[in-house]
Structures are given as C-alpha cells and as structure tokens.
UniProtKB/TrEMBL annotation:
It comes from the Bacteria. The chain crosses the membrane at residues 6-26. This is OmpA family protein. It is found in: Cell outer membrane. It comes from Spirosoma rhododendri. GO terms for cellular component: cell outer membrane. CDD domains: OmpA_C-like. PROSITE patterns: OMPA_2. The keyword Transmembrane helix applies. Signal peptide: none annotated. Its main location: membrane.
Length: 285
C-alpha cells in the first residue's frame, strides 16, 4: 500500500483542484449575473414590446448613455409616429441620496426629459409625450449605472382642440374644417386655419366672381331647430370675420346643415366633438 501513496496524493490534489476550479467558475457566474442590470421594458399591449439596456444613466446624472445605432428608442419613435393617438408617459426616478449629490431640482424629471428630447429629435410630435419625475427610496445600481426609467401608454383623448390642430391647410379648393367648443360660435384658431383665412381673403379680393362656401354643422345634442340655428350662427360668424377683412358679402355661400350631416357617430363623445364644425372651401367655377 505504501508504494501507491504518492499516486493517491496526486489523485487527491487533482480532485481538490478540480472542485476548487468548478467552484470558482460557479461563483464567478453568479457574481456576474448579480451585476447585470435588468432591461427596461417598453410594452403597449400586444402591439409593442421593446427592451432598453439597464445601464442608461450614470448614478447622479441625467445624460443618456450612448445607445448605438438603431436603438429601441428609434423603434419606439417609429411606433409613436404610426400611432398618433397614443400618449407615451415617461417617468424618471431619483433617490434621496442622488438628490443630495446634485444641484438638479428633480433629477428624475431630467432623466425623463432626456428620453423626450431623443424622441423629439426623431420627429415624434410633442403632444404624444408626457414626462414625470418621481422620487424612489432605492433602485438597482451596478457599477455606477442605473436605468431609473419606466414607460406607460394611454390613449389620447380626441376633443375639438385635438381635431383643430390636426386640420392641415392644403389649398383653397381642399375643404378645411373649423372646430368649435360645445354651444359656441367661436372656432378654435390654429396656424393652418388662419393661413386658410388669409389665403382666402387675398384670393377673393382679386377674383371677385369666385365664392367661398361656408357650411355650418352641429352635433345631435338639442333640438333640430336649435341645431339648425346654431349651425347657421357658426357659419355667419366665420363669414363676418372675413367680411371685416375686405371681402364682399356676395362672395360667400352660407349653408346651415344643423345635425343632418355628421362625419362621426353622435353616440360617442369624440364623435360629437368632430361634428361641431364649419367647412370652408372655394367653389370652383
């Protein structure tokens, strides 16, 4: 037996070394896994599922770290532009410790703003973005990096203001809708409908035989007779504004439709918002 003890010793060393090596790698793997920040998920139902890397910010800072070419934020920008009725709410977080280490009043809001600026640079409309800053007692920090963001989506409420902002001037022979608050004869002014009015006045002044058709509409709330009067009052109010700018009364055709020609269901609140309108178009002869 004594002749084999060196071999047993070598075998024992080899086994012990193997166990130690395996334990080292297992520990290293576990240690590495603990140091990886979880991704930030961006989910909108079944329509959108994205992941951002977890190391978006340095601790105590608000500048986005480089994301490389064609990041998840670029895909997010494309999604928002294809879905103009979705509002993205970006919430940035900060800890009390971070707040004490920086002069920023709300570091979380600045982090959310960094995402907003990125999306605005990608031509996402500002009305589809909302940012918030929120204090959190703690969140994961690994190697001076953190994510400190969350994303949520809600539908944009369609009202008269939204509809008015999404009416775009093309030319005078393409109808333009003016939208009104309920019961009102004062339409919501936008740069595009003001441009239409300016172009119409200039055109009618030098073309005295041409006519602008002004058609008033209402939703279905109220009586038929009352809606007819209101639609005419809306059309006449628009006409009077243009007359004050030097266009002859004879160059207008005023039509009152009341609630007879809806463009959206009056059973829905946003449908009623869409039906409270005046349509402008130059009649081509």
């Amino acid at each position: 037996m004594s002749r084999f003890w060196p071999w047993w010793a070598v075998l024992g060393v080899w086994v012990t070394g193997s166990v130690l090596v395996h334990l080292f790698y297992i520990k290293r793997i576990r240690f590495s896994a603990e140091l990886v920040l979880p991704p930030v998920r961006i989910v909108d139902g079944t329509q959108l599922r994205l992941r951002l890397p977890g190391n978006l910010f340095h601790q105590g800072e608000s500048n986005l770290r480089p994301l490389g070419n064609r990041s998840a934020l670029d895909t997010l920008a494309d999604y928002l532009k294809r879905n103009p009725r979705r509002l993205l709410i970006v919430t940035g977080y900060h800890t009390p410790t971070e707040s004490s280490q920086t002069l920023a009043g709300n570091l979380g809001a600045l982090r959310a703003q960094a995402v907003q600026d990125y999306l605005l640079d990608a031509d996402v409309p500002e009305e589809q973005l909302q940012i918030r800053g929120q204090r959190a007692e703690s969140f994961p920090v690994v190697r001076d990096s953190t994510s400190a963001l969350s994303f949520a989506f809600v539908p944009i409420r369609i009202d008269a203001d939204w509809l008015a902002r999404h009416q775009y001037y093309v030319d005078l022979v393409h109808p333009l809708q003016l939208y009104f608050p309920t019961g009102s004869t004062e339409y919501i002014q936008t740069p595009d409908n003001e441009r239409f009015a300016h172009e119409a006045v200039a055109y009618l002044r030098i073309h005295p035989r041409e006519r602008l058709r002004i058609t008033g509409h209402t939703d279905s709330v109220g009586t038929v007779a009352g809606n007819l009067r209101l639609s005419r009052a809306r059309a006449m109010a628009v006409r009077d504004q243009l007359v004050k700018q030097g266009v002859s009364n004879r160059q207008f055709t005023v039509v009152a439709m009341g609630d007879k020609n809806p463009i959206a269901p009056n059973a829905l609140p946003e449908g009623r918002e869409a039906n409270r309108r005046v349509t402008l178009v130059v009649d081509q002869r």
